[in-house]
Amino acid sequence: MKTKNTFINSALPRLNGALGKAGLSLVSLAAFIAIGLLPFYAGDEYIIRLGVSCLMYGALAMGFDLSAGFIDVANWGYAALMGLSGYVSALLYANFGLSPWLGLFAGALSATLLGLGIALLTLKMDGLFTALLAWFVGIILMSVVTALPGITRGVLGLSVEPLFDTPWSTPYYYVIFVICLATFITLRIVVKSHFGLAFRALGQDMEAAKYSGVNPVKYRTINFLISCFIAGLCGAFYAHFVGILTPSVMATRNTVQILVIAYIGGRGSIWGPLMAAFIILPVFESLNSMLELKYIIYGIMLIFVMIYYPGGLSSLIDWIKGWFAAKLKDKRTAGRS
Fold first, then answer.
1. Residue 224 in contact with residue 130, Cβ under 8 Å?
2. Helix 45-68 vs helix 170-192: angle between axes, to the nearest 10 degrees?
3. Does some domain include residue 285?
4. What pLDDT, on a 0 to 100 scale, did the predictor assign at position 9?
């Protein structure tokens, strides 16, 4: 028994360390395995479609958190970047026959390029200027899409080619699962690298970070572009999953939904927003019949978290883990004495 315990105590840390290099942990690996198996035990198309939404908004919230939680830049045009990517992918197929699979990356690239323009214009200044310009750009994009019915069909809605020739959601579930998993792993690796150290330093005190040798414009731009790419990739997927696009996809309220998930999950945690998406979206899905009330509740929750518990769910989970670790340590100490 002692040999078995010794093996477990030595093997688990090594396995966790190996997973850590890949951006995972034993807990996150188990969570992703459970999420990946959802279509097998859900047994309901509605649940699978809800799972698609949770994964998509989880990935979006993680991307949003990279900027809001690390360099203190809230991208108020996040939904507009999503919508732009969706329209680019849909129009490339409609006009040039480009495969929707390639359209996913073409759309993500378009969102990244727009993000680069916003970054170059504003990231030398305070993050508030970036947030405001992104918001204004989003409003302009929404107006342009509405005003060009000959190209985008405006409020009538643009029909989008599906990724799969099937009415079922399971294939889409696994596409967004891969996107979400890749987003999680990539962001975890990035934030643990020297890039992550630079991001945190800039988010805490940009002047101090600058005097320490961190180039604010360079690292903030890299951060912002990664976030924009994630928004674009998810936006193009959304377009091909839903099958129709209207200008409302770019509305600020959709950015608010992503922001709320990110903030409730816990800024600067990456995994917190993903966890929050799987908690919040199923609850608010039941409030769809009360659309306006739903966004009022979103606002109240956001205000409550920002004032009373800015660390969000991730901070709460960390506190619980610390409490159990302290109790376990006390028990071991008492046993030795």
1. yes
2. 20
3. no
4. 57
